[in-house]
Amino acid sequence: MRNPARLYERQALLSAAETPAVFKTAGTLAVATALLSAAVLLLRYGDQAEIWALLVQTASLTAVAALGGILLRLEQHLQIRYERVPTVLFFPAVFVAFAAGLAVVYPGAPSYLETRRLTTISPVMPVIVLTVLTALYGGAYRAAFFALLPRLTHTDYIRYLSSPQFADQFRIYWDAAVRYGDPVSLMMIRSVPRSGDTPSDLDTAARELERSIRPHLRRSDRCGRYARDTVWVVFARTNAALAEIPVRRVLESIRRDDQLQRRLEHCNALARCGVASYQRRMQSPQDLADAALAAVQEATRKERELQFHK
């Protein structure tokens, strides 16, 4: 069964990533496919089939791998446009690539994919084998593609994904502040690289930050992911003067979380926090978010753990 959260995250990643990053990811997997398929086919059928026939099979799979990013994006676009029509393009393309190679190789290598032996069992067995191979390769390709793409794109797909969630959850606090004057404060916590070090896997560090914070919030407060390296925390009915108490509680929970501290150390990162409170001059929730992010930047610049926006 599909994981809706993972599917949604992959859709956001594919939509947000730059086109060059998509092509680079597909090209990397095409090279890997070419090397792997050539090695397997030559070792297994090199003495039974013509080399040109095996090259056709390798080229077919490599071409599909190289076009995989385009096919996945087109598939996603069609699925969004025609929600009620299940549109799948990548898996049929892989199936055709395997079938084309089989059609070329089979005359020169009757044992290719054990076809002759399988046809004695049932004429449809070769089709079943191709379907299984398609599912295996297609699933592996998708997993590798979406594992590699975040490393090659400069777009923060987590921010693209979480923006609607942040806007929806923050709207009630914003409306209460604007209409009724209820105070509200926003805290941004970012995993930043240590001085002179290169950060790694800040996405995982941010997930650990969110996990560590949630148990220490009041029922009226909320937290979530804002970016690949940033977590937001909303303190309801809390102005700048009162914000220090819940903020210190959150910071203390971060310091005491050994698992989180090990993750931050492994990522060569430190937690830096910025807090901003709603002010009348702010026109939208993004103004408050920008103020909290500016406080994070100031805390990072001054090498402080925490900075309140003034």
**How is the main sheet built?**
5 strands, mixed
Rounded mean pLDDT score: 85
Instruction: State the total count of DSSP E strands.
Output: 5
Please report which band the strand proportion falls in: under 5%, 5-15%, 15-25%, 25-35%, 35-45% or over 45%: 5-15%
Number of helices: 12
Order of secondary-structure elements? HHHHHHHHEHEEHHEHE
Note the topology.
Layout: H1 4-16, H2 19-45, H3 51-66, H4 68-81, H5 90-105, H6 115-121, H7 125-152, H8 157-180, E1 184-193, H9 202-213, E2 222-227, E3 230-236, H10 244-256, H11 258-266, E4 269-277, H12 285-301, E5 306-308
Parallel strand pairs: 4-5
Antiparallel strand pairs: 1-3, 1-4, 2-3
Helix pairs in contact: 1-8, 2-3, 2-7, 3-5, 5-7, 9-11
Looking at this protein, list some descriptive labels.
310 residues; alpha+beta; 63% helix
Report what the structure shows.
The chain is an alpha+beta fold. The chain has helices at 4-16, 19-45, 51-66, 68-81, 90-105, 115-121, 125-152, 157-180, 202-213, 244-256, 258-266, 285-301, and strands at 184-193, 222-227, 230-236, 269-277, 306-308. A five-stranded mixed beta sheet has the order 2-3-1-4-5, with helices on both faces. A hairpin with a 2-residue loop joins strand 2 (222-227) and strand 3. Helix 3 runs antiparallel to helix 5. It is elongated. The two termini are 49 Å apart.
What's a concise summary of this model?
With 310 residues, the chain is of the alpha+beta class. It has 12 helices and 5 strands. A 5-stranded mixed β-sheet has the order 2-3-1-4-5, sandwiched between helices.
